[in-house]
Amino acid sequence: MGFLLSKSMDANFHKQQEFMLHNSRLQLERQIMMQNQMRERQMAMQIAWSREFLKYFGSFFALASVGLTAGALKRRKPALLAPIIPLSFIYAYQMDSAYGTLLYRMRGEAESIMESERDRLDLPQGLPTFESIEKARRAKTGLMSILEK
């Protein structure tokens, strides 16, 4: 009788372990999906910001170029055209960021860094551990209780 009860409990225990493993896997998959959706939304906002900034900067660049060109022709000073050069680089960068391949090139460079220069990504003092977080929490709690006295 005890053997049959033990065998039944063992089977239930294994089913419960499988169920818990399945649930934790689902929870992890959901967390990964949520984090990816948040990342995608942040990237979309960054691209939208670049495109909006480009509209304003493009207007400024056009007005500045026309004004500087008119001033250079009127005063016969070609030096007045000098600011157009750095402004054109900024405009080209913003155009590449908003509509070009800058994002793809950055992603490729990031992948290259992750593959060949992994040591550059290490955090100071390594990854936080449960013990280090607990130690900091206890130190802060102890400090708070001292300050309250």
From TrEMBL:
Pfam families: DUF2368. It comes from the Eukaryota. The keyword Nuclease does not apply. The keyword Transmembrane helix applies. Coiled coil: none annotated. One of its GO terms (cellular component) is plasma membrane. GO terms for biological process: positive regulation of plasminogen activation. The chain crosses the membrane at residues 53-73, 79-104. Keywords: Membrane, Transmembrane, Transmembrane helix. PANTHER family: PLASMINOGEN RECEPTOR (KT). This is Plasminogen receptor (KT). It comes from Oryzias javanicus (Javanese ricefish).
